[in-house]
Amino acid sequence: MNILHLSAQKPDSTGSGVYLHETVSALARAGHDQAVIAGIAPEDNPAFDKGVLFKPVRFETSDLPFPVVGMSNVMPYRATRYCDLTPAMTEQFKAAFTTALDDVLAQFTPDLIICHHLYLACSVIAHRIAQLKEVDSRLSDCVTCGLSHSTDIRQMLQIPLERDFIRSGVNLLDRVYALHEVQATEIEQVYGVPSERIRVVGTGYDANEFHAVPGMRKSGTAKLIFVGKICRSKGVESLLKALANLVEEIPDAELKLVGGYSDRQEYDELVNLSESLHLPAHFAGRLSQDDLVRSYNEADVFVLPSFYEGLPLVVVEALACGCKAVVSDLPGLRPWLEANIVGDAVTLVEMPRMHDVDSPYEEDLPLFEKRLASALAQALKAPAASCDTSKASWDALAMRLL
Q: Which of 122, 252, 275, 325 has the maximal Cβ count within 10 Å?
């Protein structure tokens, strides 16, 4: 088929960018012709598989005089928050993505369109395709789909930007993809999409790169690894406080925190907190894929005490590399793991109550940190575990999408 992918964000950064990029690669391996429309900064030059047509929507230009818009309020690169878009900026955004679509359609006729995030750019494309189908017979059989990464739902709940336009555009889609069953219900509630048009597809990982390497996991010091943005909403503060209570249980252990940050003050506060621990905590920053695979393979336990995620890809990567995992019992995660991961290497920790989508009640955190500490102690003492993660590969995901 001819498949067109769309994202308003950078197609090679953040979880949703990796999702898009890896899905394109998997579908290229399956023999499909593809095009990509995505937002990028002036200095960006993302690389796709040979033969993929890339149409950038370049921000910080005369037509779009502001940075790439990010689905999260804090992005790992220079970005504009959706809540800061003025009516004029919104119209510039709509015009830029409409023009990009028209330019692609002049040389590429899609059979399938996959829009990442059920938000503004998705609705622009859905409305435009509906218009063009009335006058362009080439598009009469084109199927238009949208995929939620959870941050779109959060934006819909938190800010009033173009809600009616977005909802109407999402309801023009032929199919909506969800990461898990809980999210499928949220899509139905927030956008009004009938349940029969929603399918759960999950996430994927690079099975060729992320796998266990014999001999890399050494006995001796117990190694913990966290991978994600270094911030409170990812549970880093709670992780550090939980480890502070494990002096006797894990006297000989170390923690490696992999990931970037957006708020320097918050990051410095977390680094300062880590210095009071009885065990060494190494802030490694962002790592190359090779270094990340090596870090997973050297670790005993992967930990992600996050308060909000779509479906965290890092959990699957860590399991594929042979880690045991301690993870927040995030909405939708448990049934997805049970359906797609064969093995018993994951401990899910009951979450605190949330007063916002990613903000826990402060009074619930001490008990959450106590549960987290207990789960970490048990995981570190447990024997090595292995999982079959093949159903969660990018190639398997691509087939579910099709």
A: 122
Q: How far apart are CA 254 and CA 222, in angstroms?
A: 6
257 and 320 in a single domain? The answer is yes
Residues 170 and 62 in one domain: yes
Q: Which pTM value belongs to this model?
A: 0.82
The Cβ of residue 133 has, within 10 Å, a number of other Cβ atoms equal to: 15
CATH code of 8's domain: 3.40.50.2000
Indicate if the pLDDT at residue 217 is higher than 80: no
Alpha-carbon span 341 to 313, nearest angstrom? 13
Cβ atoms 347, 327 nearer than 8 A: yes
Q: Is 359 within 8 Å of 244 (Cβ atoms)?
A: no
**Does 140 fall in a domain?**
yes
Q: Which two tokens stand for residue 164?
A: 């009616």
> How far apart (Å, rounded) are the C-alpha atoms in residues 362 and 307?
12
Domain extent at residue 274: 222-390
Whether 80 is covered by a domain: the verdict is yes
d(CA 124, CA 103): 15
The token duo for 321 is 């590399």
Q: What's the DSSP call for residue 304? A: E
Phi and psi torsions of 304, nearest 5° = -140, 90
Same domain for 32 and 100, yes or no, is yes
Buried/exposed 31-50: b ≥16 CB within 10 Å, e otherwise? ebbbbbbbbbbeebebebee
Q: Which amino acid is at 352?
A: P
| Residue 165 forms part of a structural domain | yes
Instruction: Judge whether 208 lies within some domain.
Output: no
- For 103-123, how does the pLDDT look when each residue is reduced to its tens digit (9 = 90+)? 999 999 999 999 999 999 999
Q: Rounded CA gap, 143 and 114, in Å?
A: 9
Number of independent structural domains in the chain: 2
Those residues whose C-beta lies under 8 Å from the C-beta of residue 401, and which sit 6 or more positions away, are 23, 27, 114, 177, 201
DSSP code of residue 31:
T
